[in-house]
Design a protein that fits this description.
two-stranded antiparallel ribbon; mainly alpha; globular; 305 residues; 3% strand; single chain; 13 helices
């Protein structure tokens, strides 16, 4: 990731903002060029036009390859953030896909969206963690622009290291695991490029015992990973960054912004059940076997008598 990518993201932020008072997006007229018939009459049209404008601007950066699908990934991460600002839009599996397919310009940007269609179905908490890391890397680029020895630069790098660990420990399973790891891998590569000229920055390290994000997807290190999650939950590390969300008033009980309040128990339940099954079940089995053996011995003694 270059400084130019961060600048383009900051620029599009100036073009579209969410007004919490009116509950509407306000946007620069420049975005109308990417609206259907140059008329942005719905939230979806506004968001779709902003996404298209961002991709177009990212393409113009000299030090980034236009065909690189990570530019599409970063644009989707930004779009998820803008959707989450609006409590009237529920960010569910098809939300991003539906917004983009309503835009008539999409056909010209298929190379940035088709390869990333799987990530469009991420849960909004996964989007948030990845976007937090993206913004953390941009912040590090700015803080380390003068010197990598500055305290601000080092602290920003440490924040990225914490955010990366959270992204690893909260990685999803099943069909979205690989696309999630792909996005996370691209973010790490961009951070590593910054470290090439800023050796004092901390590395983005995998938790001890985890070889790669991809190994978590194929289940090779699943049980070791569950133990790491439990340790981090005990230390409150996992929830420190991952469950901080914008302060908004949900419009209904089904609104996606309600989910963080129940996220912790939902995360804990499968981890605890899985941990219990692996480590406690053998103990129960041994006890059951001992009871069965005692019954057999007692029956044998009765027959002899």
């Amino acid at each position: 990731m270059s400084k130019g990518v961060c600048e383009k993201i900051n620029q599009i932020e100036e073009y579209i903002t969410f007004d919490s008072a009116s509950q509407n997006y306000t946007f620069n007229d420049i975005l109308k060029a990417y609206c259907p018939n140059k008329n942005c009459d719905t939230n979806e049209n506004i968001l779709g036009s902003a996404f298209t404008a961002l991709v177009e601007n990212l393409k113009s950066i000299d030090d980034e390859k236009p065909e690189d699908d990570k530019l599409g990934q970063y644009a989707i991460l930004w779009l998820s953030y803008k959707i989450r600002e609006n409590p009237n839009i529920e960010l569910i599996r098809n939300t991003i896909y539906d917004i983009l397919t309503q835009n008539e310009w999409l056909s010209e940007y298929r190379q940035y969206t088709d390869k990333n269609e799987d990530m469009m179905g991420f849960h909004f908490l996964y989007f948030k963690r990845l976007y937090d890391l993206l913004k953390g890397i941009c912040e590090t680029i700015n803080k380390c622009n003068g010197s990598s020895n500055s305290s601000e630069c080092i602290e920003s790098g440490k924040k990225c290291a914490d955010l990366y660990r959270i992204c690893i420990l909260s990685a999803p399973w099943k069909e979205i695991c690989n696309p999630y790891c792909n996005v996370l891998s691209n973010l790490k590569k961009d951070y590593d490029k910054i470290r090439e000229n800023n050796k004092n920055l901390p590395e983005l390290k995998l938790p001890e015992g985890v070889e790669s994000c991809e190994n978590l997807c194929n289940g090779k290190q699943k049980w070791e990973f569950e133990k790491l999650k439990l340790e981090d939950l005990k230390n409150n590390t996992l929830t420190k960054f991952s469950l901080t969300v914008p302060s908004v008033t949900p419009t209904s009980i089904n609104n996606a912004n309600k989910l963080p309040y129940i996220a912790v128990p939902l995360i804990l339940i499968p981890i605890i059940l899985g941990f219990s099954y692996k480590y406690l079940t053998p103990v129960w089995r041994k006890k059951a076997k001992r009871k069965a053996m005692k019954k057999i011995i007692n029956l044998s003694d009765q027959k002899k008598a």
